[in-house]
Design a protein that fits this description.
With about 80 residues, the protein is an all-beta fold. It has no helices and four strands.
């Protein structure tokens, strides 16, 4: 995983097809909550994928679902 440290984008073997993003701003507290679901095509074999969440608290740990035809990663 060290080879991906500091890499701001997905690796070339993970091709994003769709992002579903929902944001819920709390303007009085200057905070927001939200969710994202990402549909990816994995075009070559890999043991893992690194997803970045700089300065974001991800709770609970993101659920992950994989299908042969359409890998799907989602985070709350």
């Amino acid at each position: 995983m060290e080879q991906f440290k500091g890499q701001p984008r997905l690796p070339k073997f993970a091709v994003p097809k769709r992002y579903d993003v929902t944001l819920k701003p709390d303007l009085s507290a200057c905070k927001f909550a939200g969710s994202v679901a990402i549909d990816l095509d994995i075009v070559s074999d890999t043991a893992f994928i690194v997803l970045n969440a700089a300065d974001l608290a991800v709770t609970p740990p993101p659920p992950l679902s994989l299908t042969k035809a359409r890998p799907r990663f989602s985070s709350l």
